[in-house]
């Protein structure tokens, strides 16, 4: 079968450093054949790296959509453009995968979900953390610790002054709710909810620690999950002074505990203790987890490829409905914090 031909829209940092290498590593499934970027010189440089013909460096999304040789679009834009991009792709009958978070606001995210529901075309949100082996490994090990009772998820780190992402103007003046809380926070919420199911309600405080973040950049919250009366905490932010970077996700059960440690993304591992009490004195087992160097991106692309080839949008793991929930959690944090930490039910699409 011939590979899907991809038109890239937005040839910025992530397109260049992550999406292009992932496509190039999957030549039997994808061929990047066209590009459009607001600043054309960047699309031209991208085209050279990608081996795209000069006449396929376009001046607009419309030109990409009019090119019948392109079988799918990959959009890596500031996310306030996601909903309008989907609308145009549907009109042109082109499947599209768009970078996370789903949209800049809940209203736009809802519109995008409705657009996706109105068509049989595959529409995906590229939430690569949904495809991590860590999620499946956590689910497997949770089976050993009895009914799960509660959890704590902590993703925190020091502020990085010379962060290439912070240098992008659309992040400095974010139109997307919560700025970095939605930009990076949705990844953590994707992993959390992939393992434990959807969040029912939150009570949260958010605050802005760094002026450069443009808006609130840390959240400390408590959560109630939809399933089984599970309760837990979720903490996110990389705006602090010097501190160890940590991403850990600990789930407590009646018969033990499982902790995922993703602090070093190249060497993630799980620790597990089984036993019903302190007296059970369970040994701590350490289980390494293998993650692909693309950190879920190749898997997400292959999932989208299958959906396009089979014309079966229901197999997409990062569907707009799934990604809506991640952004809706961020919206709930912000609303709760604005109301002095009162409990807020997470909105449905
Ligand atoms: N999954 C992940 O781990 C991950 C990591 C990083 C980023 N991302 C996502 O990838 C996307 C791109 O992020 P990035 O870090 O690559 O940012 P970036 O380098 O700023 O890329 C954004 C691209 O959008 C274009 N753009 C900006 N404003 C525009 C406008 N008003 N109209 C049309 N085009 C515009 C830019 O064009 P110019 O060249 O003209 O500025 C640029 O090429 C975002 O959705 C982000 O959330 C995902």
Automatic annotation (TrEMBL):
Residue intervals of the Gfo/Idh/MocA-like oxidoreductase N-terminal domain: 5-120
UniProt superkingdom: Eukaryota
A Pfam family hit: GFO_IDH_MocA
Biological processes annotated in GO: NADPH regeneration
InterPro entries assigned to the protein according to its UniProt record, in alphabetical order: Gfo/Idh/MocA-like_OxRdtase_C, Gfo/Idh/MocA-like_OxRdtase_N, NAD(P)-bd_dom_sf
Gene Ontology CC annotations of this record: cytoplasm
Residue ranges occupied by any Gfo/Idh/MocA-like oxidoreductase C-terminal domain in the UniProt entry: 144-341
GO terms assigned for molecular function: nucleotide binding; oxidoreductase activity
Protein name stated in the entry: LAME_0G20098g1_1
Organism: Lachancea meyersii CBS 8951
